[in-house]
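The authors assume throughout that readers already know how a fold can be written as discrete tokens. For illustration, here is how one protein appears when written out as sequence plus structure tokens.
>
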Amino acid sequence: MAVFLQINGIVLIASEVDVVNIMLAVASSQISQEQLSDWLRESSRKSNY
């Protein structure tokens, strides 16, 4: 996911632990698509490159 975001000019600002935790939640269906979208908006920024 991070590579896809980076290719599209977005960088994750979340910690590695937070990224792992959110991916585990996705894999175990503990969060919805909307919750993941919200998390991505809060945990990423446009790249300056």
About this structure: The CA atoms of residues 11 and 40 lie 10 Å apart.
